[in-house]
């Protein structure tokens, strides 16, 4: 499920928050405390620097062939002299920028950031590395006044939608105890270039920067106040329309997620009339009680379509849900975000941090699918909603800080085959799936199995196997259900879905549409994944309002929200023209969409024009 933040602490959005809530790595609140991996014993700062430097050098040789780090200053002065930089190469250069600061080489740190900003092929990185750039310029300044001017200029140059996320780190970390507890959490994993990088940045970059926290906060607050006085950009018209309850045809849709509160969708539910809630396979289709959908969560029956945390967890942590989603969207100064940050900052013990994280993740699992279902069916009286609840899709309670076993991968595939059969037998025309995993995410989880994997090579080998297996079964469901259009969330890591091997978003299939997120102004969300060939359509994914399972409404953010918004348009298109094929739906959405301004690409779905085109095609067929 696409609820996690950027995997790497160097990424631009919510850097500090990601250190606390790598929510996709969460676990049962009953998990036993883990001790630091003994492999960290005796590892010095220089050992870690050497490990990370060697890894960066190796990866840059692979991802940016011909790049000579000795020429970094000249590249920064004349960036057009080198080709465009891939996402992975940009990531390594930003890591290198942090190492240069740790080694007290601020000019090189500055140059690495400037090169990424100028030549990263992902234009969402045009403002990356503000923390490193500001710190480098502060150190290079001749006096405090010059330092203040240089840092202020750096922050003032940030677009308003980038500013709060890029400067969150200064608001978040207050003391060394916060940082040390997070170092302890990292050291539960195996020693690897990624975990070593995290320890280095936390211990030897962020902790020393605490001395200058007040210096930075005064500038951040001043620039924030200036941003608030600036006129708002023009709102994008998303043109969502409500169909009238006449002249349309029912459309069978499905939400593939972690569960849905179906009582909120009376009149819009798909119902298998041949099945009864009696614990028997009444319609002889191989499934028991598959009245409104399928469930894969231990021994839970197919009637248990919603995950329900304990009442005390919901009561205590539901109030933080809005803050979590605001932080993902870079909205760090909302009241909800401030309340969540204050709660996190008050926790110094790493086990209490984990419990807080895990409990909040349970609330997200409770809310996520229902919120998506509300968006997918909004304004469509013809929607008939089925639910596929797959616990493994969130890797929450099923896998705790580890990867799936071979048997669990086989169980995932069985669930996928069951869902594919259900789709075909019940003639489900649209599936909205806000879930997926990158290879780097899988590797991060495997590194926590310190008793099983001792080397990075072993982790990489296992992650590759898991990704290929998951790629195979997602490819299976797309091919097995050619008459169904699948809307897949691009993901929230500001990555290229192909380059970072994101499954399922990195797969190319004629009946699959990968959806990116934009904000209310029609700008790429700061977190959205992308790819020129695979992510062509975007929808509102920042502060998109919909239902929670208790019937309340809340604006949440992510490509998870953009995806059912896109599926909503397809549902209305099929209601007015049931003969549309998946390929036609895909083509219409691209052709009728509003082009996104350069240097970005893709189109924002224009629901009004897409429905009108679907109607014209129906009349033409007559």
Topology:
Blueprint: H1 15-20, H2 45-63, H3 72-77, H4 87-102, H5 106-119, H6 130-140, H7 144-156, H8 160-166, H9 168-172, H10 176-186, H11 193-209, H12 213-229, E1 251-257, E2 293-296, H13 311-317, H14 321-328, H15 335-345, H16 350-377, E3 383-390, H17 406-425, E4 430-433, E5 437-438, H18 439-446, H19 456-480, E6 485-489, E7 502-503, E8 512-518, E9 537-540, E10 544-547, E11 553-556, H20 559-576, H21 582-592, E12 594-595, E13 603-604, H22 607-621
Parallel strand pairs: 1-3, 1-4, 2-3, 4-6, 6-8, 8-9, 9-13
Antiparallel strand pairs: 5-7, 10-11, 12-13
Helix pairs in contact: 2-4, 2-11, 4-5, 4-11, 5-6, 6-7, 7-12, 10-11, 14-15, 16-20, 17-19, 18-19, 20-22, 21-22
Quick rundown:
The chain is 47% helix and 9% strand.
Structural key phrases:
single chain, 622 residues, alpha/beta, Rossmann fold, 2 domains, 9-stranded mixed beta sheet, two-stranded antiparallel sheet, 22 helices, disordered N terminus
């Amino acid at each position: 499920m696409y609820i996690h933040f950027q995997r790497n602490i160097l990424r631009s959005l919510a850097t500090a928050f990601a250190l606390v809530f790598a929510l996709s790595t969460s676990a049962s609140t009953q998990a036993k405390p883990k001790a630091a991996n003994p492999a960290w014993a005796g590892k010095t700062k220089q050992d870690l620097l050497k490990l990370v430097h060697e890894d960066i050098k190796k990866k840059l040789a692979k991802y940016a062939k011909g790049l000579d780090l000795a020429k970094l200053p000249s590249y920064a002065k004349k960036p057009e002299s080198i080709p465009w930089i891939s996402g992975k190469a940009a990531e390594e250069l930003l890591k290198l920028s942090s190492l240069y600061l740790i080694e007290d080489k601020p000019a090189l740190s500055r140059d690495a950031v400037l090169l990424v900003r100028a030549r990263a092929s992902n234009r969402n990185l045009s403002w990356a590395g503000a923390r490193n750039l500001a710190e480098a310029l502060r150190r290079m300044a001749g006096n405090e006044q010059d330092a203040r001017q240089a840092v202020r200029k750096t922050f003032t140059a940030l677009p308003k939608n980038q500013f709060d996320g890029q400067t969150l780190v200064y608001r978040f970390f207050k003391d060394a105890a916060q940082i040390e507890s997070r170092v302890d959490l990292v050291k539960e994993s195996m020693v690897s270039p990624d975990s070593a990088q995290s320890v280095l940045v936390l211990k030897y970059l962020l902790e020393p920067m605490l001395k200058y926290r007040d210096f930075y906060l005064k500038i951040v607050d001043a620039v924030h106040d200036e941003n608030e006085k600036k006129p708002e950009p023009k709102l994008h018209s998303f043109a969502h329309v409500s169909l009238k309850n006449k002249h349309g045809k029912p459309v069978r849709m499905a939400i593939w997620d972690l569960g849905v509160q179906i009582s909120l969708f009376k009149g819009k539910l798909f119902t298998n009339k041949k099945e009864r809630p009696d614990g028997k396979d009444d319609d002889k289709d191989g499934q028991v009680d598959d009245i409104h959908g399928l469930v894969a969560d231990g021994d839970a029956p197919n009637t248990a379509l919603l995950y329900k945390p304990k009442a005390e967890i919901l009561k205590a942590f539901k109030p933080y849900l809005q803050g979590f989603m605001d932080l993902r969207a870079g909205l760090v100064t909302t009241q909800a975000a401030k309340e969540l940050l204050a709660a996190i900052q008050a926790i110094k013990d790493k086990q209490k941090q984990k419990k807080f994280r895990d409990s909040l993740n349970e609330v997200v699992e409770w809310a996520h699918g229902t919120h998506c279902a509300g968006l997918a069916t909004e304004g469509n009286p013809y929607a008939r909603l089925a639910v596929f609840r797959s616990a493994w899709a969130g890797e929450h309670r099923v896998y705790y800080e580890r990867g799936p076993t071979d048997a669990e991968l086989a169980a995932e595939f069985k669930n996928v085959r069951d869902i594919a059969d259900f789709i075909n037998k019940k003639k489900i025309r649209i599936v909205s799936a806000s879930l997926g995993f990158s290879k780097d995410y899988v590797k991060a989880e495997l590194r926590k199995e310190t008793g099983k994997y001792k080397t990075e090579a072993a982790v990489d080998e296992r992650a590759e196997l898991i990704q290929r297996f998951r790629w195979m079964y997602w490819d299976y469901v797309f091919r097995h259900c050619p008459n169904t259009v699948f809307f897949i969330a691009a993901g929230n890591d500001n990555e290229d879905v192909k380059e970072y091997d994101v499954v399922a978003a990195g797969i190319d299939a004629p009946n699959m549409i990968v959806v990116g997120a934009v904000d209310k102004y029609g700008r790429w969300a700061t977190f959205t994944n992308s790819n020129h060939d695979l992510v062509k359509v975007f929808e509102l994914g920042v502060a998109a309002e919909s239902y929670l399972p208790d019937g309340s409404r809340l604006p949440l953010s992510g490509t998870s929200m953009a995806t059912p918004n896109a599926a909503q348009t397809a549902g209305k298109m099929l209601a007015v023209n049931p003969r549309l094929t998946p390929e036609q739906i895909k083509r219409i959405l691209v052709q009728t969409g509003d082009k996104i301004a350069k240097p970005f690409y893709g189109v924002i779905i224009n629901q009004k024009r897409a429905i009108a085109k679907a109607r014209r095609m129906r009349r033409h067929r007559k």
